[in-house]
């Protein structure tokens, strides 16, 4: 019997992982990437005797596929993908492919903002409680590669809308939907409802015994639930109302329960994550842990010991009483809103980069309350400067990270915060948001060393 032909489009972490899984499961595998592959990925493919190409897509070979696993970075509108779909060839995501080969229970997490923090926190809670758990999806090692050995009882998966778009039969046992705000609309015909529909794909294939955790204060999510028939165990999270089952905040206390009894209760002031958005993230992660049997006292210990990911409200250093915080991952306005909302001191805000059609009006209230100065870091800062002239007392711009830190120190007084939370993509001056954050941290630490040596 002839082997089924598996074609992988895109040779990044998910693509190479899918190729290795396909090989292990007996497919004839061909990987194609229009860009160039990392040396480490090429070595992995060569060691597994997997055929690949880079710098082009050989259309005739791609169209011979029985099944295609597509990188989430490749839009569905690319002509080659359109041709595959028209030819009736299934085009799926790595998550969909890998899920077919695991016996583990799956926890899936999506949202326009907060999904990385919530995914890492959920994984941390399960791991600290002693569960045999893997971390994958839009973070960490390839899900497909981990499934080759399939040694975990649980996987916590961060799921972007692009990954959800390529999922059809995947069954999540616990799903979290944190929020839906306009993002990536260029991939959804600039139609918000298309993006909303993409996020709600997280519910497909769920059963009445599965758990759906969602932010109940979001009108978009509530409207989406009203218009859909969803037969699952619903666990709402609210900052405004008490809920019988789910999670809520009352009198500075987090309360979470999946059955209305034996709730987790913990003083929010004792926890390392700050800001209302992180209360939602902590409640959602705690509920997810409860759905797989983690006890409240173990969850409490896990919450207390958690450290957030790099570039997400990451404390860098204190110089002359001024705290520097790296939030380079905040590449949209909604993320910046959450960051500013969590500030408890006068803030010098660093923003700018590649604007994605931002509406800065959403930030008017937190900027008025928190921001004393704005430093624009980008090649073209005119939109930011025009909008905030007259709204923020002091504004300047730079394209140099070291200069930025010195400007901030000139304006700051002890007790102030300097917050890098750009609201924009990084590609005008940096390779990516990590590069931007790393350069900022390096410049801050250099300044701190110089200050200490005075």
TrEMBL record:
<dbReference type="GO" id="GO:0005737">
    <property type="term" value="C:cytoplasm"/>
</dbReference>
<dbReference type="Pfam" id="PF21377">
    <property type="entry name" value="MurD_N"/>
</dbReference>
<dbReference type="GO" id="GO:0005524">
    <property type="term" value="F:ATP binding"/>
</dbReference>
<comment type="similarity">
    <text>Belongs to the MurCDEF family.</text>
</comment>
<dbReference type="GO" id="GO:0009252">
    <property type="term" value="P:peptidoglycan biosynthetic process"/>
</dbReference>
<keyword id="KW-0436">Ligase</keyword>
<dbReference type="GO" id="GO:0071555">
    <property type="term" value="P:cell wall organization"/>
</dbReference>
<keyword id="KW-0131">Cell cycle</keyword>
<dbReference type="GO" id="GO:0008360">
    <property type="term" value="P:regulation of cell shape"/>
</dbReference>
<dbReference type="InterPro" id="IPR005762">
    <property type="entry name" value="MurD"/>
</dbReference>
<keyword id="KW-0132">Cell division</keyword>
<comment type="function">
    <text>Cell wall formation. Catalyzes the addition of glutamate to the nucleotide precursor UDP-N-acetylmuramoyl-L-alanine (UMA).</text>
</comment>
<dbReference type="InterPro" id="IPR013221">
    <property type="entry name" value="Mur_ligase_cen"/>
</dbReference>
<dbReference type="Pfam" id="PF02875">
    <property type="entry name" value="Mur_ligase_C"/>
</dbReference>
<dbReference type="InterPro" id="IPR036565">
    <property type="entry name" value="Mur-like_cat_sf"/>
</dbReference>
<keyword id="KW-0067">ATP-binding</keyword>
<protein>
    <recommendedName>
        <fullName>UDP-N-acetylmuramoylalanine--D-glutamate ligase</fullName>
        <ecNumber>6.3.2.9</ecNumber>
    </recommendedName>
</protein>
<keyword id="KW-0133">Cell shape</keyword>
<feature type="binding site">
    <location>
        <begin position="111"/>
        <end position="117"/>
    </location>
    <ligand>
        <name>ATP</name>
    </ligand>
</feature>
<keyword id="KW-0573">Peptidoglycan synthesis</keyword>
<feature type="domain" description="Mur ligase C-terminal">
    <location>
        <begin position="311"/>
        <end position="424"/>
    </location>
</feature>
<dbReference type="InterPro" id="IPR004101">
    <property type="entry name" value="Mur_ligase_C"/>
</dbReference>
<dbReference type="GO" id="GO:0051301">
    <property type="term" value="P:cell division"/>
</dbReference>
<dbReference type="Pfam" id="PF08245">
    <property type="entry name" value="Mur_ligase_M"/>
</dbReference>
<keyword id="KW-0961">Cell wall biogenesis/degradation</keyword>
<comment type="pathway">
    <text>Cell wall biogenesis; peptidoglycan biosynthesis.</text>
</comment>
<keyword id="KW-0963">Cytoplasm</keyword>
<keyword id="KW-0547">Nucleotide-binding</keyword>
<dbReference type="InterPro" id="IPR036615">
    <property type="entry name" value="Mur_ligase_C_dom_sf"/>
</dbReference>
<dbReference type="GO" id="GO:0008764">
    <property type="term" value="F:UDP-N-acetylmuramoylalanine-D-glutamate ligase activity"/>
</dbReference>
<feature type="domain" description="Mur ligase central">
    <location>
        <begin position="109"/>
        <end position="289"/>
    </location>
</feature>
